C-alpha cells in the first residue's frame, strides 16, 4: 500500500510562509509523479503544483511566483514552499502520488492520496 504523508501545515499570518512536506515510506519518490492539491471549505479540490520523475514542474496560475515544488532525493521528500500567503490560501493541502508517466494538475490522475495537512492564513 502506498501512503503519502503530509506535514508542515499550521496557522500563519498573511504574507507569511510555510514549507509543506510529503513523504511515502518504502517508495522512492524520485520515480513517481507528485502533485500538491488543496481543498477549501465548501469548494472542490484544486491543483496547486506537480513534479514528474524527470523533475519537470508545473503550477496553477495562482501558485506561480508564490509557491515552489521541489524534491530532495536524499531525504525522499517532496516539498511545497508557500510564500506571500493570503487568507484565500486557507485549505487542507494534500499530496498525491502516481507512477505516471508524466504528471498532472488534475486530481483524477493520481492513485494515492495522503490525509492532508491544514493551512490557515489569518491575522
Description:
This protein has 123 residues and is mostly beta strands. 0% of the residues lie in helices and 45% in strands. β7 (67-72) and β8 (77-82) form a beta hairpin.
Percentage of residues in helical conformation? under 10%
- Helix-strand topology string: EEEEEEEEEEE
What's the assembly state of these chains?
single chain
The secondary structure category is mainly beta
Number of E strands: 11
* Low-pLDDT windows of residues: none
Number of helices: 0
> How big is the Rg?
13 Å
Report the mean per-residue pLDDT as an integer: 96
**Shape designation:** globular
Which percent range describes the beta-strand content? 35-45%
The main β sheet shows up as: 7 strands, mixed
Terminal CA distance reads 40 Å
